[in-house]
Amino acid sequence: METTQDLIPVIKIDEDKCINCHSCITACPVKYCNDGSGDHVKINSNMCIGCGSCLTACTHEARSYIDDFDAFLNDLNRNEKIVAIVAPSIAASFSDTYMNLNGWLKNIGISAIFDVSFGAELTIKSYLEHITENNPAIVIAQPCAAIVTYLELYQPELLKHLAPVHSPMLHTIRLIKEFYPEYSDHLVAVISPCNAKKREFTETGLGDYNVAYKSINNYLVTNKINLSDFPKTEFDNPSAERAVLFSTPGGLMQTAERWIPEIRQQTRKIEGVHSIYEYLKKLPPILLTGKHPKLVDCLSCEKGCNAGHFTLAKEKSIEEIEYFVEQRNLEVKKKYLQQNNQNQNLTKEKLEEIVNKFWKKNLYKRNYVNRWKNVDIKYPTEEQLKNIYRSMHKYSEKDIYNCSACGYGVCEKMAIAIFNNLNKPENCHFYLAKDSEISHVEIFKGKKQLSNILESTQEGYLQINKSQVIIDCNPAFKKMLKKNDLIGKSLFDFLDNENTAVLKEQTRIRILNKQTVYEIAFTNSEGDKVFCLVNGTPLYDDDKIFIGSFAMISDISELMKAQIELKAYSKDLEKRVKERTQELENSYTEIHGQKEEIIAQNEELQQQHEELIVIQENLKSNNEFLELKNSEINRQKNELIKKSKELDIANKELHGINIELDTLYKASKEIEIELQYKNDQINDSINYATRIQTSILPDISTLKTLFSDNFVLFKPKDKVSGDFYWWANIESHTVVTVSDCTGHGVPGAFMSMLGVSFLREIVLREFITTPGVILRKLRKEIIQVLKQKGTFGEQKDGMDMALISINQETLEMEYAGANNPCWIIRSKTLPEVEVLHPDKMPIGIYEDMKPFTTKTLQLFKNDQIYLTTDGYADQFGGKDNKKLKMANLKELLLQNTKESMTKQKELLESKFEKWKGKNDQIDDVLILGIKL
Question: In angstroms, how far is CA 421 from the centroid of its own chain?
């Protein structure tokens, strides 16, 4: 029967100690029970076989066993009725005092103590009965709980070959329940070498406490209890003979050999995680050939149960471990011989009689469960596998290193883990190297491009320290000053007194964190003035201390020269116009005076003419005189006409001069407009990126209108950020989100602009407030606008996001997440961080896209909600220069839960800066907190 019944955890993880080194995955024989996709490796207990290999492999003490010692001791103190069964391996851990241990157990209240070695004798009887009755082709031994769980999970086709009887421990418990009625109602504590045994007890309902040798020893040492102070105490069941060897590799075979001498030649003895599971994987085809043993005597631990993960003998040599078990074997053999007059046959008969007394048909029968459905592993198609390899920067066969650094041994298994969201490409050693190489190339290209721009631009670029010493400059600035060796020179060396005062005043302004545009004149190496338009920006160090300035410098000497020439020309033209105007005015006055004189003369002539008419007849002799006078008058008239024409010409010339002056004035205005436009362009280019980022994000002060107690801790790695926050209110619903886009700086800011734009469309125009629907629609828009097809070589741009929608009237909250969780600290319970887990997929193209899950829960007044990206937790620092980690961030929030949100922000920022120290900030940081 197949089932997906949960398996009880037998190994626990300390997230704070796990450094995600993958040693546990390397040691694990089944691999995919480990989830390495986060900042620590988690265990899926439903796929874990409980072998404990990871306990030995982990050198950081991040993994430890789970046992029931505390519950066992507490129940004893409450006077619960308990019996104990003790495994044969006890002799390897408490070598000289294991019988004294029985005395201590009786002393603390144990009612009776049974030796599992005798249960092993019964187990051999059950094996032989099965072989005799059913004549199976092969019998796989089942004392090892890890191997049983492995077969149930990963090779259920072999369950029919697994011995259909209980282990020695369960034989012993069945023995107690059936043949010791006085203890049938007692709880059973198993003094055990193995963490996996808890699974066996849970599955069969036999056995109540799995108590580790280590836990007992720790208790004895802590409480300064010496076992030698307690009497050596015998077990309450019959003594075993050679079955005391059952915990040693081959012990089952040696015990069976007493009854079937030829069994040794028909047995495969095999142990150790590196051997047994590979053996079992290859066994099915061997069974078809008939080239297989009758019995497989197998154990998961290399040194057998004597060195299980609960024991004190894990680090001992094989000789030291097995010596005390062998000594015990010699002692019990000697005891049996003494009781039977040194007669081997009689001893064998006596032992058989005792075993038969406590053996009963079907009493020790065991059924197994097919747990194949627990193994929820999907396998990618060939094309999907290629895409995963590409995400790992593996583009050809030569990139398939199979180096084992990831823990899986071969690249394909790592790719399968990634396909099942159990790991991520970043955990591939060669991915990191390749990614670093790609990043280096991109950075180099960026630097090269910037360098080319600065080298080729006609504008000058200059960086100076606070003392005005040149730190760096481009060729254009060197060309302006006609000097190449400018680095280390002071700007004051190239300024006269007037312009030195200008620079000092601008430095004072720059220290006040102000950006200005101003004119200054440098003196180049040839002594010529170079007039410049300077756009200066202040520079500060990490402590916000002024360290100098950066400036864009435009050479406006030609413009200034044109202005000077224009002013000189205008002044000269004005002078010429004045002179010509005065000359014309003088001419006009002269002409006007002659005209008056002519008019007066004309009047006189008229009078004379009248007189002449009167006296004409009398003065005929004077005709010649009159004709002369007439000629003079005509000459003067002609002169007057000539003067009038000259005045007209002068007026036309004056009009032309006025037109020329107007043209020059318009040209001057155009030059002035061009200078202003160029200055505006310079300012726009500097402020452009910052304006984009600022314009898309909501004003932080508006969050206070929605939640009176809140904070937003926002620390971009660069001037602009790939992380962004956004909120909006639709009727009674408030939608709040925090997102982490692909990349930092300008690329990340571009993604954030897309994210906010689409969120506005979805929430404010479509009136959608359900988080899962919002994320699904946002993913669709992102895929469409980026034209993502999921093809080879395509950039996997997107964003991780946590989004909540709170009904302000009912305080009911809905949440959906794309890789980013939501944390809640309740006001009505003991402080702890309640985690709403996200869907393991981004906002963007993904191999296995599913609808985003909307989770709904009821909030209460004073509950605190936190949304965060990974930048804060991923920051390296501290005394060991490690990541700060999400666990520490959650602990910090718990410590400060009684503080106001404003104070919490201050404490978080202080902790971050202290942790970071002198390290560079590695990612954008964004945490948003609200209190209802």
Answer: 15
How many alpha carbons fall within 13 Å on the CB side of residue 456?
A: 6
> Computed from CA positions of residues 871, 877, 882, 884, in that sequence, does the dihedral angle turn out positive or negative?
negative
Please report, to the nearest 10 degrees, the dihedral formed by the alpha carbons of residues 160, 165, 170, 172 taken in order. -160
Instruction: Give the count of beta carbons closer than 10 Å to the beta carbon of residue 333.
Output: 15
Closest CA to 755 of 820, 824, 702: 820
> What tokens does 236 get?
């309450």
Q: Is residue 209 part of a domain?
A: yes
Task: Assess contact for 632 and 597: CB atoms under 8 A.
Answer: no
Contact 5, 44 (CB under 8 A): no
- Which three-class secondary structure string do you get for 288-301? HHCCCCCEEEEECC
Residue 209 belongs to domain spanning: 67-373
CA distances from 776 to 517, 758, 853 (A): 48, 12, 10
pLDDT for 847 beyond 50: yes
Residue 866: helix, strand or coil by DSSP?
strand
- What strands, in cross-sheet order, belong to the sheet with 723-730? 723-730, 733-741, 799-807, 812-818, 855-858
Does pTM top 0.70 for this prediction?
A: no
Q: How many residues does the chain have?
A: 932
Angle at CA of residue 535, ends 534 and 539, nearest 5° = 120
Q: Specify the pLDDT at position 551.
A: 87
d(CA 632, CA 643): 17
In the predicted structure, residue 639 carries a pLDDT above the cut 60:
no
Are 15 and 157 within one domain? Answer: no
Distance of alpha carbon 287 from alpha carbon 56, whole angstroms = 33
Q: How far apart are CA 403 and CA 221, in angstroms?
A: 43
Long-range (24+ apart) CB contacts under 8 A made by 329-332 are 329/242, 329/244, 329/245, 332/239, 332/240, 332/241, 332/242, 332/244
Given a cut of 50, whether residue 875 has pLDDT beyond it is yes
- Beta strand 11-13 with 267-271 is unpaired
Per-residue pLDDT at 650 exceeds 50: no
Asked, for residue 383, whether it belongs to a domain, the answer is no
> DSSP letters of 154-210?
H-GGGGGGB-SB--HHHHHHHHHHHH-GGGTTSEEEEEES-TTHHHHHHHHT--SEE
- Do 75 and 58 share a structural domain? no
Q: How far is CA 27 from CA 9, 195, 249, 375, in A?
A: 18, 17, 21, 19
As a whole number of angstroms, the distance between CA 889 and CA 871 comes to 11
Q: What is the CA radius of gyration of the chain?
A: 49
Helix (H/G/I), strand (E/B), else coil: 468: coil
834/828 Cα distance (integer angstroms): 13
Q: Residue 360's pLDDT band (boundaries 50, 70, 90)?
A: very high
Q: Does residue 819 lie within any of the structural domains? A: yes
> What share of the chain has pLDDT > 70, as a percent?
84
Residue 469 tokens read as 């010493």
Q: Which residues of 856-890 are buried (b: 16+ CB within 10 A; e: fewer)?
A: eeebeeebbbbbbbbbbbebbbbeeeebbbbbbbb
Of 123-132, 241-250, 452-461, 776-785, which range is least confident?
452-461
Domain final residue pick, 373, 403, 438: 373
Does 799 map to a domain?
yes
